[in-house]
Amino acid sequence: MKMQFHLALPCEDIEKTKDFYVYTLGGKQGRSTDSWIDINLYGNQLTFTEAGAFHFNYKNYRLGGEVVPSFHFGVIVDVALWGKLYSKLFSMNLEVTTETTFFPDKTGEHLSFFVKDPNGYMVEFKSFKNPNEVFSDQQD
Question: What pTM does this model have?
Fold first, then answer.
């Protein structure tokens, strides 16, 4: 069985959240009610529950000279889909970080970008140069 993740998060508005994850990012809507929704985001289950206003302090850290939000989640996709998503989202004038290569010429080299969803969550999209290195130890 392919490994998948499930992540449950609060959201401020079900419809805006659904529009972003289904129509903007290309996810598929699953089960839902007026107060929660499941999203299939490239084979992984996100559950959003309408919770009203909530707040996070986005603290950052440095990775390879880049500033990365410490509170984020993401999806690993192949390079073709990664490029398609990056081009689409960047052209929509969303809050998208520029593409970055982490660990160039090292174990775990991957392309990455972040986009902010309507709830303030940072969603990362990664594409590994060698998919077999997703869980490899970093070696210098």
Answer: 0.77
- For 107, the token pair is 């174990």
Mention every residue, 6+ apart, whose C-beta is less than 8 A from residue 34. 14, 50
Cα torsion 17, 19, 22, 28: sign:
positive
Q: Give the C-alpha separation, 21 to 107, whole Å.
A: 31
Q: Is 21:38 a contact under the CB 8 Å cutoff?
A: no
Q: How far apart are the first and last CA of the chain?
A: 33
pLDDT per residue as tens digits for the range 25-67: 999 999 888 888 999 999 888 989 888 777 666 566 666 777 7
Residue 73 · residue 84 · CB < 8 Å: no
- The rounded distance, in Å, linking the Cα atoms of 108 and 121 is 24
What ranges in the chain are assigned the alpha helix state H? 14-18, 79-91
What's the CA gap between 131 and 138, in Å, rounded?
14
